[in-house]
Structures are given as C-alpha cells and as structure tokens.
Amino acid sequence: MNGEEEFFDAVTGFDSESSSGGFSEASQRVAAVMCVDSGRSNGVGKAGERPPRENGIQKHRTSLPAPMFTRSDFSVWSILKKCIGLELSKITMPIAFNEPLSFLQRITEYMEHVDLIHRASCQPQALERMQCVAAFAVSAVASQWERTGKPFNPLLGETYELIREDLGFRFISEQVSHHPPISAFYSEGLHQDFLFHGSIYPKLKFWGKSVEAEPRGTITLELLKVTQCFCLLASDFVFSGIFHRHNEAYTWTNPTCCVHNVIIGKLWIEQYGTVEIVNHRTGDKCVLHFKPCGLFGKELHKVEGHIQDKNKKKLFMIYGKWTECLWGIDPAAYESFKKRERRGDHLSKPQPDDSSQKADGDVADAVPEVQETVQVIPGSKLLWRVNTRPPNSAQMYNFTSFTVSLNELQSGMEKTLAPTDCRLRPDIRGMENGDMDLASQEKERLEEKQREARRERAKQEAEWQTRWFHQGSNPHTGAPDWLYAGGYFERNFSRCPDIY
Questions:
Q1: Which of 36, 68, 193, 201 pairs as cysteine with 182 (C-beta 3.0–4.6 A)?
Q2: How far apart are CA 372 and CA 125, in angstroms?
Q3: Cβ-Cβ contacts under 8 Å for 401 (sequence gap 6 or more)
C-alpha cells in the first residue's frame, strides 16, 4: 500500500486491503469531509473566501413551537370513501392530517445524509463510490419512517431554499406545475464536489385502507472533478491528499411508499419496489430491492441488492433496512453465509393468524411487529446508519433533528428569502404554531387565490412561466426533465409571483 492509499484509508475509514474493514475508529471522529478543487473558487464568492452566510444559520432549533395536533377526533372515511382509485392530489383533506411542511421541504430531507455524497467524491475507486451513492439513495427515504402526516401541496410557483454551510451544500426547489403536481429541485456542493437534481411527481392513490405513492421522476447525482481532499477531524487536524479525478453521473427513481390504515387502526408505512442506480460513465449498476412487508411482516423495512459491472458480474452485495442501516460484503462471503444459513434453517414457520386473513374493508391492516435489528454477516462493512431522532420526535410529527429546522424563520430572514419561499406560507406557519383554525382559513384562502390566478390567466390566454427551472431532457438518460436555469442565489426576486 503506498502513502496515498494509506492516507485515503485513514481519512475515509475504508480499508482497501480488506472487504471487512468498515469504518475505522479514526473515521468515526470525522466532523466534516470536504472535497475541493484547490485551483478553483467555491462558486459562491471569490477564490479563497468563505461563502457568504446569506440565510445560513449556525445553530438550529431543536423543537417545534407547538406539539403535534391530535387526529383522534377526525374521521377521514366520510371524505375518502367515494375516492377509491382516484389521485389523492385531487382530494381535499382536513388540515389535521397534514404536517407543518410543504412537499418542497419534504424533498429537501434527501440532504440529511449529504455526508455520503461528500464521502463518495473522495473515493478513488468506482465501486467504492457506488457503495456511497447506494447508501445515499437509501438514506433519502429513511426520514419517512413513521411519518404519517401529509405534507402541504405546494402552490404553483412556490419555492424553498436551504443553505447549510456546516453540511457543505445549498438547495433550491420550485413547484413548476400544479396539474399534474411537479416539484423540481437542484442542489450543489459548496466546494464544487457534486450536483444533485431532479423533478418529482409521485402519483398518489387511495386503495380503501391505504394510500400509495408511486414514484415518478428521475433523480440525478453528478460527482464532479476533484483534485484534493480535506478532512477536518474533531481534534482539528487536517489531512490532504491527491486522488484520481472523476466526472460521473448516477440516476435512479425512488421506491413506492405506502401508508396503511388511513381509515381505522394504527398508521404504518412500508417502502417497496426495485431501485436501479446507474453509473453512466462506467456502466456499473446497483440494484436494490425494497422488500414488501409480506404476510407475517418478516420482510418489513428490508433492503437487499448488489452492485454489478456492465457485464452483469456481481461485485458487491448490499443488505440492511431503510429505517436503520445498510451493510455491504463481498459476493463470495455473502453466498457462503447464505448457504450455511439455509442448511441450519430448521425452525418451524409461524402459523398464519386468522385476523390477518380477513379482507373486510372495515378491518385495519395488522401492524407488523418490529423485527430484530439487522443480522450482520461476519466480514461486512457498514455503509450507513440512520441518525438518532430527538427524544421529543413523537410530539413533533416524528420529525428528525434535520427536519425540525427546515421551517425555521429567524428574524431578518424575510429580507433574504424569495417571497415565494415555503417559510413564508401563513397556513404552514399557523399549523406549526398550533393555531389550526388560522391554518385552515389560510389554506382555503391561498387555494382560492391560486384558482383565481388560474382563471385570470385563462382569460388572457397566458401560460404560466416558471422562474428558476425550465423543461428539457435529462443530460444522461434523455428522458423529459426539469432543469435548473440558474440565477436564484443572485437574489433578483423582482419577477417572483405573488402567491401568498
């Protein structure tokens, strides 16, 4: 192992000599990982200068202004019983079933584990980069665990921005279409190590006892050229080293999300479907199977898959739970363990419970028992572990610490934000503050204002003009996509619509 590889292993915690290396003790002390091209500016200010703080906040709140409003006094059946099979976006739901976030802010939760992208940018090998990207794709849906509230539908032209210098990124999103509802987003590393963008338009359907969100829209992650990697440790030591350049793009689509027992019983969530992550430069592909719950709940939350090269040769096996953690191991070691497991499988299978067989629409779907934590195969490497939620999360719509900060509006931020930013929506703000009557009134007012604006455009035969995104083709797949037009962070908001 040469000096460059030794430095790389010390910084990232990956052992290039062993498939069972996992994270080293040193890597667990890493406070931040930033990959930069030392010959270029950071894209925010002049070369060598720190990015301006803009609306950045160094310390973020740890709780919401008011606890979650109880939903026990509301019956959604009278609203939904005539809507089976229809798109949920066309159904007006009581505000009590919402959570105080816009769907644009919900998308921003993809960035909670952005450290995985930074780590991917610092990996010299394509296989190691794909491992990090796969972990990021899984982590992007982890915040949905036990999140049974419905985010507010964004108004046409609504935006949301987030700048987190401590996490090394900035993010902008816009609601570019109302029917069908389409949300476009764009994020970039403050040190030019990545671009992350896409357009999301999930198809929501109500199926009697459950609501299913079928994913639509492509998610794209671009790892840019990197010449030098800096790693700041808790002990304030800084290491650096020169690594291989890479300029590659990955695309994928999220799994299907289903919320059970929206009529009666305890709400619970599962994700299922196959996610394929493609490296468009190398042809490598990661295939991840989000397992459906199954009759006895044995597969609840499980994710299994593999990374293969362009010739479909399996290079790495991945397993875990999207609610908890993700592990990886060499294919030979994985198959060997599975063979031993099958030979020792002498336990009797559980008998079905009569209540789980009932198909009556008035009977709730049984909530699967939470399975034991992931069984770690000897020699496995930890790819990702979910952040611990705050102790008061259950009283805050089961938000993560990252999510709690998303609608924070500190004094003076109004002067910096676009007038279309979610933080300025009075209905969401009212709900967050615990004033449900005000929130309901403002929600109705904003929706009527949106309908009136649509009628006015129809009279004038004028089409809606998006502000920060435009229609085009995904540069890597060729599929229709919404692309960032640029200019948002120059903060010329003179042409922003009046939507609030």
A1: 201
A2: 34
A3: 60, 62, 387, 389, 390
In the block, residue with structure tokens 């009283």 = 395
- pLDDT tens digits, one per residue of 125-148: 999 999 999 999 999 999 888 887
For 381, which DSSP code? E
Q: Which residues contact 108 (CB under 8 A, 6 or more apart)?
A: 160, 162, 171, 173, 185, 406
Rounded to whole angstroms, the Cα distance separating 47 from 45 reads: 6
97 and 74 Cβ atoms separated by less than 8 Å: yes
* β-pairing verdict for 228-233 and 30-36: antiparallel
Distance of CA 349 to the CA centre of its chain: 36
> Within a 10 A sphere around the Cβ of 473, how many other Cβ atoms?
11
Cα-Cα-Cα-Cα torsion 238, 242, 245, 246, nearest 10 degrees, comes to -40
Tokens for 302?
């499980």
Tokens representing residue 397 in the block: 């719509």
| Structure tokens given for 185 | 């987003």
The set of residues, in sequence order, having a beta carbon less than 8 Å from that of 372 and lying 6+ positions away, is none
Token output for 333: 């070691």
Residues 440-454 pLDDT 10s: 999 999 999 999 999
Distance (Å, rounded) from C-alpha 231 to C-alpha 243? 13
Q: Sign of torsion, CA 225 402 426 216? A: positive
Could you list the mean pLDDT of each consecutive 10-residue stretch along the chain, which spans 500 residues?
A: 38 36 35 40 36 56 88 58 57 79 96 96 95 97 86 96 96 95 96 94 77 85 72 44 69 87 74 94 96 78 96 97 95 93 58 38 57 84 95 93 95 94 97 94 96 96 96 94 97 96
Closest to 396 (Cα-Cα) out of 55, 144, 62: 62
- Residues forming beta bridges with residue 163, ordered by sequence position: 170
Query: Which pairs count as long-range contacts for 318-321, CB under 8 Å and 24+ apart, including other chains?
Result: 318/131, 318/134, 318/286, 318/288, 318/383, 319/374, 319/377, 320/138, 320/374, 320/383, 320/384, 321/374
Which residues are registered as beta bridge partners of 305? 288, 318
Residue 155: name the closest of 96, 202, 86, 104 by CA.
104
User: Quick count: other Cβ atoms within 10 Å of Cβ 311?
Assistant: 6
Q: What is the DSSP letter of 369?
A: P
- Residue 144: C-alpha distances to residues 206, 246, 362 (Å): 18, 32, 26
- Report residue 298 as tokens: 């044995």
Residue 40 tokens, joined: 């270029």
Cis peptide bond N-terminal to 378, omega within 30: no
